[in-house]
Amino acid sequence: MSSYPESVLIANRGEIARRIIKTANRLGVRTIAVYHEVDAGLPYVLEASQAVRLEGEIPVKSYLDSEQLIRIAKETNAASIHPGYGFLAESSTFARAVEEAGVTWIGPSADAIDLMGDKVESRRTVAAAGVPISGDAGAALESAEEAVAEAEIIGYPVMVKASAGGGGIGMSVAHNAEELAKAFANTKSMAARSFDSDRVFIERFVASARHVEVQILGLADGTVVALGERDCSTQRRHQKLIEESPAPNLDPKIRERLIQCAIDSAASVGYLNAGTVEFLLDTVSGDFVFLEMNTRIQVEHPITEMTHGVDLIEQQLSIAATGKTTPDFNPVQRGHAFELRICAEDPKKFFPRPGPVNTFVEPTGEGIRVDSGYAAGTEVSQHFDSLVAKVCAYGQTREEALLRVIQACEDLEIGGLTTNQTFLAQILASEEFSSGSYDTGVVEKIQKRLKEEAKLAKRSA
Fold it and tell me: How many beta carbons lie within 10 A of that of residue 54, not counting itself?
């Protein structure tokens, strides 16, 4: 049996497609890229062994056309399909169709995707495995009255969430029964429109919390390997901006419990391949609860690679082909790493700002890594996510890594495009962030302070 699939079709675009192609090319795995005409000039199209143009007028729908993707896989004799993240990466329907077509799916089983993609069912499953959750592990709530009754048990404030949701869509905090009734109706309606499912649940809202996730690899023999944790608390409106690994100022005993709970969560569904288990950690009590499991490779996987000396894409390919990690797989956690998400958006109002990339000069130096889907002469399209590049830095200590990522952020040059680069630099330079003692409200706190300082400066001018 070969250590890797003979070939792989990447059912994605941009940065993650380029990332997968880089590893596959290094391993001698034939790569097939797919692209809509708006992406024809992007680097990943040129770097693949073969590139096939997608049909369809609407760019996003082309990448979501599972029948077309599978047809291309057959026509190019692709042995496997890697979905990357986003698009169809967490579609159990697509995963099943790929397997039924006789093509290897690089990811977990469709059943695991189904189970972990439903927040109500996933909470019930991991709770049965002894993993702590917030609220009741029962069925989805059908009415506002049921929600109020549940809130009286777990206590206010509560967070209302869509069972099939993601990206913070539909999430709402309620501090009393009246607010909860309104939030429940709004979330149920938004969930139906956004996810084709109006199932809703509630959980205890933690005012001062950290968002910590654990990277895992599930093997065919049932073994689950954990590769440390990442702190993803630096968010704006539930969208991650900066991640770091390991999580700073985390009690070793809590870290040990988090990792074990991640292993137990993955094992509870017989998880195969790469995945991430996310937790919400109360900074006051030290208690944590299961949030969700992402059944795919994460955007922020590079910082785990940097701190463990592994290539997660290579391990995904190996697991898909053999059920096991590579023979030389021996992860040892060392040092510290940061990742910045450079996005094409206004740094003050945060509206998307697509446009041409006239110049693109990546930072270099010891411990620096840049994963990008663009180059000079390309264009960030209005049709897709605004992520331009991920700037990462590694150091033997958090302090060293922080200095390096600050310098890398300063050295990055993207001409002709408006990005959030200056805002990220402000976060990195802040005491709130540099202290390592922050929670999910850190960005809001920094923004508030910067506004107050700007007002004072204006008055004294």
Answer: 18
